[in-house]
Amino acid sequence: MKLNHLAIIMDGNRRWARMRTLRALAGHDKGAERLQEAARNAAGYGIKYLSVFAFSAENWRRSDAEVTGLLSLMRKFLKNEIDSLVTDNVRLYIIGDRLAFDAELQGLFAQAEARTAACDGLHLTVAVNYGGQQDIEQAAHKMAAAAQAVNTNPASLHSCLMTSHLPPVDLLIRTGGEKRLSNFLLWELSYAELYFTDIFWPDFDAEALKEAVAGYYNRKRRFGGDDSEIQAGQHVPIAEKLG
What we know:
There is one protein chain. This protein is of the alpha/beta class and 243 residues long. It is built from nine helices and six strands; from the N terminus they run E-H-H-E-H-H-E-H-E-H-H-E-E-H-H. It has helices at residues 13-19, 24-44, 64-80, 82-87, 103-115, 132-148, 157-160, 206-217, 238-241, and strands at residues 5-9, 49-56, 91-95, 123-130, 171-174, 193-196. A six-stranded parallel beta sheet has the order 3-4-2-1-5-6, with helices on both faces. Helix 5 (103-115) links the parallel strand 3 and strand 4. Helix 2 packs parallel to helix 3 (64-80).
C-alpha cells in the first residue's frame, strides 16, 4: 500500500548535542536542518503528508534557557524559511494550543499558514504545544457543544480534531532509541506501521529515511485481516517506489 502519510517523532536532539559537548540548542538547530532535508526527500518519494512532533505540551517543563531557545528557533524558521516552502510547493499547518505562545509567535504561525495555503504539494504539519489526548478531549467538547445547539447536525469526532485535514498515518518513525508514542497523533496512528531507530534525529540523514521507507514497503498491511484480504495488485517493486 502506498505510503501517503509519514509521521516522525524527532527525538534525540539534546543527547546528540551532549555527546559533542554542545548546548542543547545546537542539537535542535541541527534537527531543524534535518527536517528540511526530510521534507524534500519525502516529497521525492511521493509522500503527500508529513507530520512532525516539534514541541510537545510536556516540553514546557524543560529549562527556561532551552525553552527560550526552541521558541527562538521557531521564530527563525517562520521568518526565514517560508519563502522556501512556497518555492517547494509545501503547505504548512501548525497544530497545538497556540494560546500558550506570545502574540508575535501566534501571528507568525497564522502568516506562515496563509502564505502557503495555495500550495498543493507536500502537506507539512508541525505539532507545537500539542498532545493527542488533549486534542481528542477538546474534540469531544466540541461535539457535545454542537449537540446542544439548535438545528445542528452532529459532527464526527475526526472532523473536530486539530488534525481533521490529515488522513490516517501509514508509517511512524521515531528516532533516538525510545519506543513509545509520547501522546502524538493518537487518533491517526490507530493502524500505523511503527519504525523505531537508535539514530538521533540530527543524524537521521537521507539514507536512514530511505531505509525506513523501504522497510515500510517490505511489510504487508493486513488491518486485522489476513493475506487473502490484501488487495491484489498492490505490490510494486521497492526500487520503483523509492524513485
